[in-house]
Design brief:
Chain B: This is Integrator complex subunit 14. The complex is a heterodimer of chains A (749) and B (520). Chain A is of the alpha/beta class and 749 residues long. Chain A is built from 25 helices and 18 strands. Chain B has a seven-stranded mixed β-barrel. A six-stranded mixed β-sheet of chain B has the order 5-4-1-6-7-8, sandwiched between helices. Chain B has a two-stranded antiparallel sheet with strand order 2-3. Classes of the chains: A alpha/beta (749), B alpha/beta (520).
């Protein structure tokens, strides 16, 4: 076979070898594509090896005196505008040296590589003259074009006056082999992780040597040198912890010669020198030929393919009201072309000959504005524009970087349009998304309403939505584990566990979650830790419930499934208290303070009251209401200094806590606690009134809105006391006149 | 994963099976019996699977296109006629075409080849096809491996000894490895009879058509579900991690993310998540309040009426426009979301991300995602106006920074022209002028392109001589200063040719004229 097995094929691996046999002999591995590019990782050898040959690439660039020779590709810098042209003689054009050509093309190789593989594919760059200058290391922070450019500037162009006898590319090649033996951070990590099977971590690499060779014999000499060095270094590496023997090395020799010269070195396809080393020779003229050669190489080496976006409308600066159509060529992993691989390019896309390169054409679809849609995307691949700073390219990339997405369709002569790809930017990186454009195997599934639980209509959808919002995720890049040794994701799971300890799924299964008055407690009790204030709030909630019961306020108990009016009021409260206890009991183990909340409930919750007592309470009621109202006003007046007021409240509450459990148990009717907390009573009573009787959709909605609003700001006391949103002013005047405040309907009866 | 049943209807399938019993069976009868069993299983336990039936001899015919109607499949199967000799290659080519036409080139498929192991003679026989494998042109390639991912199940109405007596077994094994190695050869144990054919098809069903049942959990809320199609194990890296990863049967929700933030992520596969009723003791938390609701659960009729977590989750995901991040195994995640088929029907769907700690770069490492309540302030803002996503990468890509590429002459010319344009508008454009000048300088130094620095220095000197009389005096100063600096840089003098050295505007004072650098 003139073209050996692909880099990833191993001896003894039947599947790989058979695939190679099936491939068209002699074809470039890249362009056949027919035998490897399956989506499933288990199908694609190129995706299956972290430490393939492309994990490590060493660039060795010749820095000997002859590289300072001109490439003879001339560049006119003096582009005179017509109006000025007559006045003067243009300056002489400039020429890039062989060195400049080699450096800028290799930098372009690196740029594309870093764009598409920001990690895991590493480059070590070195230049060779009388010695080897290593410009960076395998470390991740050294992997950037900026770093390399800066190091290259420090090296400068080759010195034409240096003694050519002292200079050689061999220094670089030897150093390159040594460098391939050095372990990368990734290899180290993998070896540490796989201690017992560390041998699975392999060491392969590629050397790209840009030089000017004298002859084919010279080339052979270079190959032999690499081969010998590998053998030596492998022996050395076998006895070292920080070094690894090289299992496979690809040597890519690029002979660069000035334009107009005849080449002294002949091209040679990849050849296995030994089981470890393979070598290929490319003889290329400096200038654009070299550029396109390295572009082809980077595509081959890293499984890239090219897509040309066509029909991109762009406005011209001069003619702002018209737009011309442009094409932009992008590189990306070849898997993005998976659906074209069967040679149906004649329908799906067009393959155009641009040098040796192939590209698939996709048509720009003017983007819609609603981008918040979940597309069925089967792959996303980073891109790099071929011509990064051309105007059409930068126009397209800036458009995408600003957060717009563009759908791409396959150009077809007839038939319906097929959108197969999407360009989209995530966090400053542009990805080519592959969208599914064929028939779905999941079409026409049974609707969820036909399955289990599908006939139930009163799911707490809104509440669960709220639950989801509270359990949204965010990133903690700097917190690896918390004090308890949990990663953030484990804390997220723990939170979900806490929040769902008691979570009835349907409205008719719950009373407390339909009650506005319980919300403060329900929100707090699920927390991992409670503050003193949190406990206070929970207690207030409980007192408030006690007050409601005392006033015999109706509860939103579901009557679904039961005939007639449902349980009696007493029974309703019993159910409510039971449920509340269930909720709090589920969290009682969390902390002392959670325990306090449960104690408060046990202390306050009603015992079945005697008939008489209830009557008595009924008689007393008017009295108490008045008191409550007065207290309310009192605290409103004092409310201008909320801080001191709260402090006082806290202290009082603490005292109560100590005494309450004893006192109140014996006399659940005791009015004390409620009167001390009149503001809360006022605030939380309101929504309850509206939910008299069975819950209507409107009242659910209203209570939800109220709930949402109440979190943002305290409600105006005027509105709280209003009837039909009309508040009566100067009520206290009336009050003083001895009229009943509650005649407007504020009271519950 | 659609299935193609490729049924051998060549004459050899009509060979009678020797039995002690009274009735005489043909191999074909056994095959039909086995397939009937398969179809019955699918109709009850795997009914969303699309199946096609292809019959082949020397020719092939699509008897039933992809369907979920197992009655039609069964009926057609019962009425298959007998034809001439076996020619597997053309039949496989047919399968390849049928699948690609229907599902495209990326949808994984299963092919169930039912044959008696006599694989034809002469041209068109499998032996011949395999022997000529290497001598084919691009247009006559052997149909395997299929262009789509495929599992090939070869079900032989023959026992292993019979196949090993000829080269049939070798050929079939070679066929299997050609297909990519995923799949299996099934043979009959013992005498050819109804019982052994049942046993063989039973193995196929166990291997490839068992529904995937799992428990979907969100904290203490849970639901039994079937995941369809069943998720296939994924091989990550054959060297480092040679054991395929399988989705575990406990699917645990870890949190929720807005659809806009997850942003059409790439997925390995999509699956319906269908709640199922399983008879078991009600041990779910949340049933605490349910006790007064209903005493008897767990019957299939009641299943529709008893609340199910999947339905609740689906409803809320749909209303809120969110997805639930779900853990499928160690370092393997997916997402649950509501997928609308049409306006009326929608479903809970699960997509699997590529296994690994960081499947989506824009979410960062999944293990580093935590609850918002742990953050010092809500990263979504009080009014949901913000988002912690996307996570920004450490470095910018080349297209997001102003890189200099001079591979094409036009790139270089544009950069020189930019400098000259600004040079003509000095001193107003002093800052832009120096910014462009420094950019060019840096690139020229990195590329060892000192001639360019000299050339631009000359251009600036000439601009200086061409300045009109009306020009601001500062312009001339700046131009010759810049030209001088470039010349120094091109000399290789370490002070002036340092990469990080920046040419700064010449400090001039034209305060008398009220302009100059202080105008900037």
């Amino acid at each position: 076979m003139p073209c050996g097995p692909p880099p990833s094929a191993r001896f003894g691996d039947v599947i790989d070898l058979l695939r190679v046999l099936a491939a068209e002999p002699g074809a470039l591995w890249l362009s056949t594509g027919s035998c490897t590019s399956h989506r499933s990782p288990s199908w694609d050898p190129s995706r299956m090896k972290m430490f393939s040959v492309s994990h490590k690439t060493v660039f060795v660039v010749d820095h000997c005196p002859y590289m300072s020779e001109s490439s003879r590709q001339q560049i006119e810098c003096d582009m005179l505008t017509k109006s000025r042209a007559q006045a003067m003689i243009p300056l002489a054009p400039v020429y890039k040296s062989l060195w400049t050509c080699a450096v800028e093309c290799s930098m372009e190789y690196c740029r594309i590589l870093y764009d598409i593989y920001p990690a895991k594919k590493l480059i070590n760059y070195m230049v060779s003259d009388s010695e080897c200058h290593i410009l960076n290391t395998w470390r991740e922070e050294d992997q950037s074009v900026q770093e390399l450019m800066s190091a290259l500037a420090a090296v400068g162009p080759p010195n034409p006056h240096e003694d050519p006898e002292c200079c050689s590319i061999l220094h670089g090649l030897v150093a390159a082999v040594e460098s391939l033996c050095k372990i990368t951070e990734y290899q180290h990590e993998a070896r540490t992780a796989l201690v017992d099977v560390a041998h699975r971590v392999s060491n392969r690499g590629r050397i790209i040597c840009l030089t000017n060779a004298k002859s084919d014999t010279h080339v052979r000499m270079l190959e032999d040198c690499v081969l010998e060095t590998i053998q030596e270094q492998n022996k050395l590496a076998a006895g070292s912890d920080r070094l690894m023997p090289i299992q496979q090395c690809e040597l890519v020799l690029v002979h660069i010669y000035p334009q107009g010269d005849d080449t002294l070195v002949s091209d040679r396809q990849k050849k296995e020198m030994t089981s470890v080393l393979s070598s290929e020779v490319h003889s290329v003229r400096a200038g654009r030929h070299l550029a396109s050669k390295l572009n082809v190489l980077v595509q081959q080496h890293f499984d890239l393919a090219s897509t040309t976006i066509t029909n991109i409308p762009m406005k011209e600066e001069q003619h702002a009201n018209t737009s011309a159509n442009y094409d932009v060529e992008l590189l990306h992993h070849r898997d993005a072309h998976m659906e074209f691989k069967n040679g149906d390019l004649h329908t799906g896309g067009s393959s155009k000959e641009s040098g040796i390169r192939e590209t698939v054409t996709l048509k720009w679809c003017t983007p819609r504005t609603n981008s918040v849609e979940l597309q069925y995307c089967t792959g996303a691949y980073r891109i790099s524009p071929v011509d990064v700073n051309s105007r059409p390219s930068s126009c397209l990339t800036n458009f995408l970087l600003n957060g717009r997405s563009v759908l791409l369709e396959q150009p077809r002569k007839a038939g319906s349009k097929v959108v197969s790809h999407m360009l989209s930017c995530h966090g400053g990186e542009i990805f080519l998304h592959m969208l599914n454009s064929t028939r779905s195997t999941l079409e026409d599934p049974p609707s969820i309403s036909e399955g289990c639980g599908g006939r139930v209509t009163d799911y707490r959808i809104t509440d669960f939505g709220e639950f989801m919002r509270e359990n949204r995720l965010t990133t903690f890049p700097h917190v690896l584990v918390d004090a308890a040794g949990r990663a953030p994701i484990e804390r997220a799971k723990a939170q979900l566990e806490r929040h769902t300890r008691y979570w009835p799924m349907i409205i008719s299964q719950t009373t407390i979650f339909n009650m506005q008055a319980v919300v403060p407690l329900a929100n707090l009790i699920v927390k991992d830790t409670l503050t003193e204030d949190d406990v206070l709030t929970c207690q207030k909630t409980v007192y408030n419930l006690v007050d409601m019961e005392r006033k015999n306020d109706p509860l939103p108990i579901s009557t679904v499934g039961s005939r007639g009016k449902g349980p009696k009021r007493d029974e309703q409260y019993r159910i409510m208290w039971n449920e509340l206890e269930t909720l709090v009991k589920a969290h009682v183990e969390t902390s002392e303070r959670h325990q306090q909340v449960l104690e408060c409930i046990s202390a306050c919750r009603s015992k079945p009251p005697e008939e008489e007592e209830r009557k008595k309470r009924g008689r007393k009621r008017e009295d108490k209401e008045d008191k409550t109202e007065k207290n309310g006003k009192d605290s409103e007046e004092k409310g201008w200094t909320p801080d001191t007021e709260r402090l006082k409240g806290v202290m009082e509450r603490e005292k109560e806590n100590e005494s309450e459990s004893g006192v109140i148990k014996d006399s659940p009717d005791s009015p004390e606690p409620f009167n001390k907390k009149p503001r809360l009573t006022l605030e939380d009573l309101q929504p309850q009134e509206k939910s008299k009787g069975p819950v209507s959709l409107l009242s659910l909605w209203t209570s939800r809105i109220t709930q949402a609003n109440s979190r943002k700001h305290p409600e105006f006391s005027g509105r709280l006391n209003s009837i039909n949103n009309k508040a009566e002013l100067y009520q206290h005047l009336k009050d003083e006149n001895g009229k009943d405040v509650h005649e407007n309907g504020k009271a519950t009866r | 994963m659609p299935t193609v049943v490729l049924m051998d209807v060549s004459l050899s399938m009509t060979r009678p099976v020797s039995l002690e019993g009274a009735e005489e069976f043909q191999r074909k009868n056994l095959a039909v019996h086995g397939l009937t069993m398969l179809f019955e299983h699918m109709a009850t336990n795997y009914k969303l699977e699309f199946t096609a039936l292809v019959a082949f001899s020397s020719l092939w015919e699509l008897m039933v296109p992809f369907t979920r109607d197992y009655n039609t499949l069964q009926e057609t199967l019962n009425n298959l006629e007998d034809y001439d000799k076996t020619c597997l290659e053309s039949a496989l080519q047919g399968v390849s075409n049928i699948v690609q036409q229907e599902w495209g080139g990326t949808c994984p498929c299963q092919v169930v080849l039912v044959t008696d192991g006599s694989l034809g003679i002469g041209r068109g026989s499998l032996r011949h096809s395999l022997a000529t494998l290497k001598q084919r042109g691009e247009d006559k390639k052997f149909p395997l491996p299929f262009p789509f991912p495929c599992k090939l199940y070869i079900v032989c109405i023959a026992n292993a000894e019979e196949l090993q007596a000829t080269d049939a077994m070798d050929n079939l094994e070679q066929l299997l490895s050609l297909s990519g190695g995923e799949g299996q050869i099934f043979t009959m144990d013992g005498p050819l009879c109804l019982k052994s054919v049942q046993a063989m098809f039973g193995k196929l069903i166990d291997h490839a058509y068992m529904p995937f049942h799992a428990v979907l959990r969100c904290g203490n809320l849970a639901s039994d579900v079937q995941v369809f199609p069943r998720p296939e194990p994924v091989l990550l890296d054959e060297e480092l991690d040679p054991v395929p990863k399988a989705v575990q049967t406990e699917l645990e929700i870890v949190g929720f993310i807005e659809i806009g933030d997850i942003a059409s992520p790439p997925v390995l596969s999509r699956h319906l998540v269908l709640p199922i009723a399983v008879n078991k003791e009600p041990d779910e938390v949340g049933a605490g309040a349910a006790d007064e609701m209903e005493e008897d659960t767990s019957t299939n009729q009641m299943a529709g009426k008893s609340p199910n977590f999947c339905v609740l989750l689906h409803g809320s995901l749909k209303v809120e426009g969110m997805v639930a991040l779900v853990q499928l195994g160690p370092d393997w995640y997916g997402m649950l979301y509501s997928q609308a088929d049409s306006k009326k029907k929608s479903n809970l769907m699960m997509s699997l991300f590529e296994p690994g700690p960081e499947p989506l770069p824009w979410l960062g490492k999944i293990s580093q995602l935590g609850p918002i309540s742990d953050a010092p302030e809500n990263p979504y803002g009080e009014d949901d106006s913000k988002s912690p996503f996307p996570v920004l990468p450490k470095s910018k890509r080349s297209y997001a920074q102003n890189v200099t590429v001079w591979i094409k002459a036009s790139g270089l010319q544009t950069d020189v022209q930019k400098i000259l344009r600004n040079a003509r508008k000095l001193p107003e454009k002093t800052q832009t002028f120096y910014k462009e000048l420094n950019r060019l300088r840096k690139a020229a130094l990195a590329f060892g392109f000192w001639d360019l620095l000299k050339c631009v220095a000359e251009l600036l000197d000439r601009e200086c001589t061409l300045l009109p009389d009306s020009a601001h005096p500062d312009a001339a100063f700046q131009l010759s200063h810049a030209a001088q600096q470039l010349k120094l840089a091109s000399s290789g003098d370490s002070k002036y040719s340092a990469f990080d050295h920046v040419i700064t505007p010449m400090l001039t004072d034209f305060s008398g004229g009220g302009s100059g650098t202080d105008r900037m």
